[in-house]
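User: I'm writing a tutorial on reading structure tokens. Could you give me a worked example: one chain, its sequence, then its tokens, then a sentence or two explaining what the tokens reveal?
Assistant: Sure. Here is the example chain.
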Amino acid sequence: MKKVLIAVLTVIVCAAVLTACGEDKTEYTGQDEYGRYFGEIYDVDSQESGVFELPYEIGGTSAMGESMIGANCADYVRISKEGNDYEFTFLCKNGMLGSVEMAQEEGYVKGKESDEGDLQGYTFAISRDGIGQSVGLRCVVRLMNKTVEFTVKADLQKARLVG
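And here are its predicted structure tokens:
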């Protein structure tokens, strides 16, 4: 009976956390220098430049891993495009992750860290083909001092212009 109660409470807490993380609380207003509206959905390929936020799916990990990433990381990745050059930024709460690396042909490459207010950003150069596929990430979860691996796949159909 006690195990059932704990399992039910765990499911309720996880559902509440996932629901709260899925809410889009960002307000976008205005236009950029090209007359594009911030917050609107644009095709990344049809734009010469821009900064886009894209929702993503988590893979390559357990259900517990997915819920922890969902609870502690932004519900979007950021793609910056300038001509044919792309950058991929993964964002999590400050202090949660360390040594974030992306799987690339030559092995794992460490991301460039940036402070994004309440979030820590990890930015990587990426090819156009790479942003349409699952991106392998490896990092240290600082609270557990454990290295974990997972994938994220950005939804290119929902690229929201943010800059």
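What the tokens reveal: Residues 1-25 have pLDDT under 50 and may be disordered. The chain has three helices and ten strands.
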